[in-house]
Automatic annotation (TrEMBL):
Similarity section: Belongs to the TPP enzyme family. MenD subfamily.
Organism this protein belongs to: Candidatus Caccoplasma merdipullorum
Gene that this sequence comes from: menD
Function: Catalyzes the thiamine diphosphate-dependent decarboxylation of 2-oxoglutarate and the subsequent addition of the resulting succinic semialdehyde-thiamine pyrophosphate anion to isochorismate to yield 2-succinyl-5-enolpyruvyl-6-hydroxy-3-cyclohexene-1-carboxylate (SEPHCHC).
NCBIfam families found in the cross-reference section: menD
HAMAP family, A to Z: MenD (MF_01659)
Name of this chain's protein: 2-succinyl-5-enolpyruvyl-6-hydroxy-3-cyclohexene-1-carboxylate synthase
Assembly information from the UniProt record: Homodimer.
């Protein structure tokens, strides 16, 4: 008979996780979490990924969940290890990704008694989780076992119920920690059956009639995961003359007729004609927007109605014009609307925007062809050259913004940590994404500061050879040169950009990445095919001038 930990509450926990189909466990070494490590390591149903740094571990789990669409369990020891999960937990909350956080803890008598690796762990992530529970230290009576079974079922069900999100199970443990026993538990499994949130036919008819009769409707998609039903519904709606579909690159919308380079097109609107392009009805869905320009445009020229499709408990009023929050899933709602709405033949709203898009494309292409070597020039060469079927990961700061300027439809998926928009876990998230999908290329494009910030992610042992990383090395946090507030401050270089020479090549080589480099157009064009054809994990360093990039990008929008 198989043996596992002798801690009964832990045996029950892992049996429930196994029977609920949880497969991936990201484990960080420790002492207090010994029973949890034994429980996971000795279960043949689990895929185990060992990551030393808990911050990297949590972002790795996020990347796996992001690509697999399944909950991922994290295991760490007590103390500050628990706090190191916090950035990824917050990101998972706002990305609505299901993480099951398993933290070992000291027994209650040790808390606040100057014991080592001890802090107040109960409800530690209170603002960013769907459910939390601290299990009993021991199971001494049937009521204890009943409580553990009920609470673990409830926590896992919460993670797996839309809108998805992280949950926290805190597990206080007394020594000895390394004892083993037979794996004999067969706890009760409580399934959660969730009905689809549907709308009454009367409501659907009313909203569809509004769509049919209104002359100017804008559908605006921010970040989200690919959904075929959603993309098909949007493609159908985008054929209507009164509808313009605007999608950000990380929306993962594959729909004909979409305008995918929002900022590029917005800057082509002739002065004084902005009200002509403003929608009467704005319909939004997905997470937070990357484009500040579309937010400013809509706030300046607010719609008569704004519908937000969102299953969150919070009212999401990004544009300060919200009139309806539609509490159902985007694929369901837009499919129903697409089946009922009809074309408004008197409208030319879609044509107006698509003519503007063609104009913007020509003007911007002419500008980009003429600019000297810079981030913009490098992205213009790089983005179309990314192989079809690549899973693209974009770091925050400038990479996610530059990528939005180029329409490239060959990617399998495009993701970025835009829930909270930090730079702290881009490498680890990309590593997790690559681990989840080893059969295809995962490409991370990051800045040198973001790369340095999460360089521990390079040490993850499970990184497959399909992970490729591009580091845009411009000598600092270039985003602060674009922001109107920081760009004019005398403290810019020392306190915001934190100008430094990141040793990209050395970090790549000591972590087993094949290294490539480019510092001009010719060398980049030569490096790209060799970089992507590399049979192992690889890194391409692209060096650009630090003080020219902001001027070139500003002129791009002004010209």
């Amino acid at each position: 008979m198989n043996t596992t930990t002798d801690k009964k509450q832990v045996r029950i926990l892992f049996e429930i996780l196994s029977r609920k189909g949880i497969k991936d466990f990201v484990i960080s070494p420790g002492s207090r979490n010994t029973p949890l490590i034994i429980g996971a390591a000795r279960n043949e149903n689990f895929r185990k990924h060992v990551v030393l740094d808990e911050r990297c571990a949590a972002f790795t789990g996020l990347g796996i969940a992001q690509q697999s669409g399944k909950p991922v369990a994290l295991i760490c020891t007590s103390g500050t290890a628990v706090l190191n999960y916090a950035p990824a937990v917050a990101e998972a909350c706002y990305q609505q990704q299901p993480l099951i956080i398993l933290t070992a803890d000291r027994p209650p008598e040790a808390i606040d008694q100057d014991d080592t690796q001890t802090l107040r762990q109960h409800d530690i992530y209170r603002n960013y989780i769907k459910y939390t529970v601290t299990l009993p230290v021991e199971i001494n009576k049937p009521e204890d076992e009943y409580y553990v079974v009920r609470e673990v079922n409830q926590a896992v069900n919460a993670a797996m119920r839309p809108p998805y999100g992280p949950v926290h199970i805190n597990i206080p443990l007394r020594e000895p920690l390394s004892g083993t026993a037979a794996a004999t538990e067969s706890p009760r499994i409580i399934e959660s059956v969730q009905p689809q949130k549907t709308l009454a036919e009367k409501t659907l008819a009313e909203l569809s009639r509004t769509i049919s009769e209104s002359p100017k409707i804008m559908l605006l998609a921010s970040f989200g995961q690919y959904d075929k039903e959603l993309s098909d519904a949007l493609a159908r709606l985008a054929r209507y003359p009164q509808v313009v579909l605007m999608t950000e690159s990380i929306s993962n919308i594959h729909a004909a007729g979409a305008i995918k380079t929002i900022d590029k097109v917005l800057t082509a609107i002739p002065n004084g004609e902005e009200p002509t392009y403003a929608p009467d009805i704005l319909i939004t869905f997905g997470g937070s927007l990357v484009s500040k320009m579309i937010k400013r445009f809509i706030r300046t020229y607010p719609p008569r109605e704004h519908w937000n499709i969102n299953q969150s408990a919070a009212l999401i009023d990004t544009f300060q014009a919200l009139t309806r929050q539609i509490d159902t899933s985007s694929p369901y709602f837009l499919k129903q609307i697409a089946e009922r709405a009809v074309a408004n033949s008197s409208s030319n709203y879609s044509a107006l925007w698509h003519e503007l898009q063609e104009k913007a494309e020509k003007e911007k292409n002419t500008y980009v062809e003429a600019v000297p070597w810079s981030d913009l020039k490098a992205f213009s060469i790089l983005m179309p050259a990314i192989p079809a079927g690549t899973a693209l990961q974009l770091s925050n700061g400038t990479p996610v913004r530059y990528a939005q300027l180029f329409r490239c439809d060959q990617y399998a998926t495009v993701n970025s940590n835009r829930g909270v928009s930090g730079i702290d876990g881009a490498v680890s998230t990309a590593a997790g994404a690559a681990i989840a999908t080893p059969g295809r290329t995962t490409l991370l494009i990051t800045g040198d500061m973001g790369f340095l910030y999460d360089s521990n992610g390079l040490t993850i042992a499970d990184i497959p050879p399909t992970l490729k990383i591009i580091v845009m090395k411009n000598g600092g946090g270039n985003i602060f040169r674009f922001l109107p507030g920081t760009s004019v401050l005398p403290e810019l270089e020392h306190y915001f950009e934190t100008v430094q020479d990141v040793k990209v090549k050395e970090l790549a080589q000591i972590n087993g990445f094949e290294y490539f480099e480019a510092d001009n157009e010719g060398s980049l064009q030569k490096a790209i095919p060799r970089f992507f054809e590399s049979p192992t994990k690889a890194l391409l360093e692209i060096r650009t001038p630090r003080v020219e990039n902001d001027k070139i990008l500003r002129n791009y929008f002004k010209q």
